[in-house]
Amino acid sequence: MSDLSKIPVTVITGFLGSGKTTLIRHLMQNPQGKRLAVLVNEFGTMGVDGEILKSCADENCPVENIVELANGCICCTVADEFIPTIEALLALPNRPDHILIETSGLALPKPLLKAFDWPAIRSLITVDGVITLADAEAVAAGHFAGELTAAQIAAGEHDTPLGEVFEDQIACADIVLLTKADLAGEAGIAAARAVIEFEVTEKGRGRLPILAMTEGVIDPRVILGLHAAAENDLAARPSHHEGEDGHEHDDFNSIVIDLPEIADPAALTAAIQRLAREMNILRVKGYVAVKGKPMRMLVQAVGERVRAQYDRPWGSNPRASHLVLIAEHADIDPVAIRTVLVG
User: Beta-strand (E) ranges in the chain?
Assistant: First the structure.
């Protein structure tokens, strides 16, 4: 079977909070006449992104075409979860024309690409392209380099756990999207672009398109229909974990904190910012019940940047507040975290 007769799959990767779900929402709203399916992977035990996307479902991407895999990276659960999920999507009565995969922010793309060579699916699907999202402001600030100095960052030293994930995601890309360009500004975008270009050159990838983007808005024709067949090009996509079928996540951990109804969203925002400063919490997301408000509040944070918005009424659903927090393993202290959030 030729690649053109296979169903194309776009892998959308990028670090925690880089804007992957926002981009997929935009693609769902602008499907270019295609019937889409979406596979969402969450690192933590509680899924949030899948629910966000299901709220956007329509005839071009119905709810049954949106599947969420939580509690781990699909690159580590290929046989148990990824392959059966792809097979289920391909078995739908109305088969999708294009599949979008949103990886966990901690996923290494290359082990996932290797899965496309599995006999059960290799004749049916192909990797149309790997789209890597990078938070322009965070990259420009060197947040993926841990405690390295500015000189070390300029020299391309990104050997921290965060840096390894970042490097592998860039090394696998067919296109890099610099997200949150409005927050980064022209100087931030230029600095982030320089970091990405250095990484690409270091890995011998040649030139890659690097495009700035705000709120997930980009012409779908730019990132879909690349015909990259990335599964046949693995040697050109280096990884820190060569020779491994998956990778361990001992460097990172996640917990879910249940909260009572809150009275002051601003106080919750301040508490989350404090967690980022004092406990190195990388990512926070979840739903919160606010006293006197019939709608649930969606909370998403990357470091000290916190975004909260009311997304839809609770309706008959329990007014239960849950936040999932992700950090490097040593920084997860449930008691201390809960004390900051609840008191």
Answer: 7-14, 36-41, 66-69, 98-102, 125-135, 175-179, 210-212, 252-259, 281-288, 295-302, 305-313, 321-328
pLDDT at 149: 44
Position 158 scores a pLDDT of: 47
Residues whose CB is less than 8 angstroms from the CB of residue 140 and which lie 6 or more positions away in sequence, other chains included = 184, 187, 188, 189, 191, 192, 195
Segment (H or E) for 85: helix 83-90
The full set of domain ranges for the chain reads 3-236, 252-342
pLDDT at 102 over 70: yes
* Percentage helix, strand, coil for the chain under 3-state DSSP, each rounded to 5: 35, 25, 35
d(CA 283, CA 301): 6
Q: What is the pTM of this model?
A: 0.78
DSSP state of 76: G
**DSSP 8-state secondary structure symbol assigned to residue 227:** -
- Give the C-alpha distances (Å, rounded to integers) separating 226 from 129, 173, 223, 283, 337: 6, 12, 7, 31, 44
3-state SS class at 210: strand
Which residue in the block uniquely carries the two structure tokens 């960052």?
153
Q: Which long-range CB contacts under 8 A does 305-313 form with residues at least 24 apart?
A: 305/17, 305/183, 306/269, 306/272, 306/273, 308/265, 308/268, 308/269, 311/52, 311/55, 312/55
Q: Which fold has domain 3-236?
A: Rossmann fold (3.40.50)
Confidence of residue 1 (pLDDT cuts 50, 70, 90): very low
Six token digits for residue 89: 């999507």
Architecture per CATH, 252-342 = 2-Layer Sandwich (3.30)
Distance in angstroms (rounded) separating the CA atoms of residues 77 and 84: 10
If you count them, how many residues does the chain have?
A: 343
**Which residues are bridge partners to 68 per DSSP?**
40
